[in-house]
Predict the structure of ATP-dependent 6-phosphofructokinase.
Amino acid sequence: KMKLAVLTSGGDSAGMNAVVRAVVKGGILKGCETWIVREGYEGLVRGNSEAHHVKNFVPTLAGHVVTDADPSLIHNLRFGDGELLRDGTGDHQSGRSLKGRYIVRVGWDDVRGWFAEGGTLIGTARSKAFRTPEGRLAAAYNLIKEGIDALAVCGGDGSLTGADVFRSEWPKLIADLRAQGKITEDQAAKHGHLRIVGLVGSIDNDMSMTDLTIGAPTALHRICEAIDNINSTAASHSRAFVLEVMGRHCGWLALLAGVSAGADFIFIPERPPHGDPWEDEMCEAIQRVATFHLSLEHRAMGKRKTIVIVAEGAHDASLQPIRADYVKDVLTERLGLDTRVTTLGHTQRGGRPCAFDRIMPTLQGLEAVNALLEATPETPSFMIGMCENKITRVPLMEAVAMTRAVADAISAKDFTTAMSLRDPEFCE
Ligand code: F6P
């Protein structure tokens, strides 16, 4: 029986809870024992303090102990820890607390309704400790202590790289733990292979080899609504607005927000403005209502609002950051526009997932369980993605390497390569 744990890591994104729910429920349906790890890799490193070491988790059905999840009875299952995680601290009714416990056995009811919740209910962190060999040794020990042999990680490229490092180091970690006498010969033999799978949780849609990342559709929807709101006040006052949206190395949110809600000019990291100086290019584009009216000012043509979107990672061709406040000054001074800045910040990241950020993570979570069940020491770690509306498995490290290549191309000012490494058709 595979013992499977799921964790969320890095920046949260809408849909992460749907991943956890799908992995837990999918795992149970396939006969696995299911666990969650709180606070990402940090929780793996901290593990469960001995005082709280729970060995006596007993799934029950109407008072009768059940050993395996019987799919025909699943809707009736009431695992002992149901509701344990709902408020992140434990189930007050049963008096059990999660204090000192980061790796927690969960059942069907623990994740009930999670597809509709924003953020990640099991917590996330950017763990410094897990980046050290000592941290990873502690993490391996904590997993083995609970008998867990499979791990699903939902996070961005940094988190998925961490997963791959962990897996490739695993044989050495086992050998070290055995040498230190922390695990028995039996445990070492039983845990010779760690099964790992990655799911991409990132609002930026910045991972290569998948069409979408979990949380990106919701964030885009949030931005779209914000622009709709701003449009009405902007038009009322005949104002310009500069909107800063998230996206460190990736302009997907900024670009698609422009397509779905309208914008006069967009700054993204992969393609800085060509104009030299770019201020001229922007001002000219904003004034151009239609090519045959080039000479006329846009306000004179009856246009009552101007929207400029700046991705937070935007810069000019020499990699100097382009800041929303500076864009505002240019619009005010050069075009005489009454301009305001709105930074959407974390309103883009939090809140309830849209329908697609429930559907895609559900399908991907189920596929993640299949990938873990089929994993062998020879197969690479997979990342679950989506390509042309189909759920896919791609080699995790290939996807991470391609994603890194975009950031590297941007740093090298090779914007043609950066653009072509993103979806080439879309970039055109
Ligand atoms: O990667 C997701 C993201 O939201 C980026 O767009 C943003 O730069 C970053 O995380 C901000 O992260 P935090 O506020 O958690 O430091």
Residues 157-179 form the longest helix (23 residues). Residues 11, 156, 202-204, 246-248, 312, 349 surround 6-O-phosphono-beta-D-fructofuranose (CB under 6 Å). The radius of gyration is 25 Å. The chain has a mean pLDDT of 87.
